[in-house]
Design goal:
single chain, five-stranded mixed sheet, 15 helices, Plug_dom_sf
Length: 460
């Protein structure tokens, strides 16, 4: 559940960035096809962005460890403290899933409503176009490759050609696919206002595209086409919300865009700014959020009476909290009471949090403390198993190269083991194939597991 909510959080932040860029830079431009491409890219990128191995795309050290390395036994006073947080994740996840399920059920109901309208309509050919005629009043509408005309729309001979061209544009340009994608995206991102704003913007833009096509067909002058919009009636036939149909909520925007001067070629540069800017902000957000999470986990998951070491010397929780995330090089946690007593001489501290900044990674105090830890945990470092793989070259790397899929596998399949913090990249000398060796510790026994760069488990 926690992984689902983290995925949703990242996707929704990206949606918000895309929405902000669209409303600030692109909304009033008349490049409707480019706006359509931008909005579809926004939804697609937000969906795949949380699945990308983002920390590996950032410079080394740009993201802190997503999982605090734990040395020593997992049992201890701090163990039960995680239960309330897990319950919070579960409650939030249940609320989110309930809302998404409700909107998906509504989408199913809209599709069934459309099937009902289609069933009661009869086929006909109007001005050379195959349509389905629905008894009742209201304007024309379309869905998929089908155009629906009400009896009242069919009787309006003066407006019929332009209205038909408008619906033909929806069908010809495949706008229904956009609508379905936007409905799904809104259902899955329903708590995020940006998702609803992007959907509204995309639906309006599809109407602008259809209006533009109808005017280019030359069936009516621009002024007469606007009067046609004003004469149309909403309501009447209960057309499904998924279908393209007349709506007073979009009428004002459509008329404004019909009178909007054509955007100049110079304004195309806004597209070169909007999407790359959002992508860069998303990358920066990932790194900053991962670092902040690591600091918060180290500083708040433990009580104030835990021992804190900053750059190899005794410190406190306040000093750790005040660190800038970008300054942190590593965060280690020791929870084994025996180790705390043996190494740090404390019988009362529930654990030890060790924070090292990038600037002081080689400071004498840090090296001295590392030497003490290695004396107690001699298994740290490159294991002997590495030397038995002659076809591979290897190099130590950081825990943050592991994608969430690999970390989730470790959590679910090795619940009694801890991540030591030792990760090694193996690269085949001939094929260039890359895999990662991750050292886990169960009790005091170290062992290694292997993962692909995509997070697939390869074996022990």
């Amino acid at each position: 559940m926690e992984a689902l909510l983290l995925y949703s959080l990242k996707a929704n932040v990206v949606l918000a960035l895309f929405a902000a860029a669209y409303y600030a830079l692109l909304r009033h431009l008349t490049f409707f096809k480019l706006n359509r491409a931008y909005l579809l890219f926004a939804v697609a990128f937000a969906a795949v962005y949380p699945l990308l191995p983002m920390p590996a795309l950032l410079p080394a050290g740009a993201a802190a460890l997503p999982l605090a390395a734990s040395r020593g036994a997992a049992a201890g006073p701090a163990g039960p403290a995680a239960a309330p947080a897990l319950g919070g994740w579960q409650v939030a996840g249940a609320v989110y899933l309930a809302g998404a399920a409700g909107l998906l059920l509504r989408l199913l109901g809209q599709l069934l409503s459309l099937a009902w309208v289609r069933r009661r309509a009869h086929p006909a050919t109007v001005l050379g176009q195959a349509v389905r005629v629905v008894p009742g009043t209201g304007g024309p509408f379309s869905f998929g490759r089908t155009i629906f005309l009400t009896s009242s729309a069919l009787a309006d001979a003066a407006s019929l050609p332009a209205a038909l061209r408008h619906e033909q544009a929806h069908v010809r340009q495949g706008h229904t696919l956009d609508v379905l994608l936007l409905q799904l995206a809104t259902a899955l991102a329903w708590p995020n206002p940006a998702a609803w704003l992007l959907r509204r913007a995309a639906l309006d833009n599809l109407e602008y595209l259809a209006d533009q096509a109808a005017l280019q067909a030359g069936t009516l002058p621009r002024r007469d086409y606007q009067y046609l919009l004003l004469r149309q009636q909403a309501g009447g036939v209960p057309a499904p919300a998924l279908a393209f149909q007349f709506s007073f909520s979009t009428l004002k925007n459509r008329i404004l865009m019909l009178n909007q001067p054509h955007s100049s070629a110079r304004q195309l540069g806004r597209y070169l700014l909007a999407a790359p800017l959002v992508v860069l902000l998303a990358l920066g957000y990932t790194g900053a959020r991962a670092q902040t999470a690591a600091v918060a986990a180290a500083a708040s998951a433990w009580p104030a009476n835990a021992l804190y070491y900053l750059d190899g010397v005794p410190s406190d929780q306040t000093a750790v909290r005040e660190l800038k995330p970008a300054a942190i090089g590593s965060v280690d946690v020791i929870k084994d009471a025996a180790a705390v007593r043996r190494i740090f001489g404390s019988d009362t501290a529930p654990g030890v949090v060790l924070v090292t900044t990038k600037a002081n990674a080689q400071a004498p105090a840090v090296l001295a403390l590392t030497k003490r830890l290695n004396a107690s945990y001699p298994t740290l470092g490159i294991t002997k198993a590495m030397a038995t793989i002659p076809d591979y070259t290897y190099a130590p790397t950081h825990v943050y190269v592991l994608v969430p899929k690999a970390l989730a596998y470790i959590t679910s399949h090795y619940p009694d083991a801890r991540l030591s913090g030792t990760v090694t990249e193996l690269k085949h000398k001939t094929t260039g194939e890359v895999k990662y060796q991750v050292q886990l510790i169960k009790g005091k026994r170290p062992f290694d597991v292997f993962f692909s760069p995509q997070g697939d488990f390869l074996g022990e």
